[in-house]
Amino acid sequence: MADTNKAIEDLRRENIELSGMMLATGVILTQLLQSICKRELNPQAAAGRIMQTAREGIESFASETKADPHMKERALQAVQQYEDQIRSVLAV
User: Fold this and answer.
1) pTM above the 0.85 mark?
2) Domain spans of the chain, in order of start
3) What is the DSSP letter of 11?
4) What is the mean pLDDT of each run of 10 residues along the chain (92 residues)?
């Protein structure tokens, strides 16, 4: 029982660490993408191109590696989330 509790606690700690890293990565990525897009003549179109390329990359990776369909779906949802966030701060 003690081994099980320790394993659960180790997994919780690892999950917290990974969640923190994902949050920081997401914020940094969003800031970088916003900065890149704002420099373009048409920032909305630039955001669309970047996100479409990301979707194509996910589709290609998923098919080549036979990735878990749930992972692929979550990755595509994340791209949409980033696109929404970036577009919300860009000039129309």
Assistant:
1) no
2) 2-89
3) H
4) 93 96 92 92 94 97 96 96 90 69
Q: How far is CA 74 from CA 8, 13, 22, 44, in A?
A: 24, 22, 14, 23
Report residue 56 as tokens. 């194509």
Residue of 37, 79, 35 lying closest to 55 (CA atoms): 79
Give the list of residues 6+ apart from residue 86 with CB closer than 8 angstroms, or none: 30, 33, 34, 37, 47
Q: Which amino acid type is present at position 32?
A: L
Tokens for 4, please give them.
């099980």
Q: In sequence order, what E strands does the chain have? A: none
